[in-house]
Amino acid sequence: VDESLDNGGLSFPDKITINPAYPNPFNPSTNISFSLEQYYNVSIDIYNLRGELVSNLLKGGLVAGDHSVVWNASDQSSGVYLLRVSTDNFISTQKVMLIK
User: Fold this and answer.
1) What span, in angstroms and rounded, lies between the C-alpha atoms of 44 and 21?
2) In what order do the strands lie in the sheet with 79-87?
3) What are 29-57's pLDDT values in tens digits?
């Protein structure tokens, strides 16, 4: 039996993968892309360096596969921000820089 055909020929990642935000530095928007190996409740939040939440980009359930979210930061000031992608059992944080 060919195991790759059990899911209809589709392939899914075997873990959560968060790609580096691109472009970074950016103005005024950056793309956040990630892959999930199964259904997860996902939250994507942007914090300033004081730890204050400045934007919630996503909060909800996503199916397995590749996903992408755009952060348009045209209403924010130049600086470094922390991008946090989290599920029930996974957190990834990266720095992004907005340059106006």
Assistant:
1) 12
2) 53-62, 40-48, 79-87, 90-98
3) 999 999 999 999 999 999 999 999 999 99
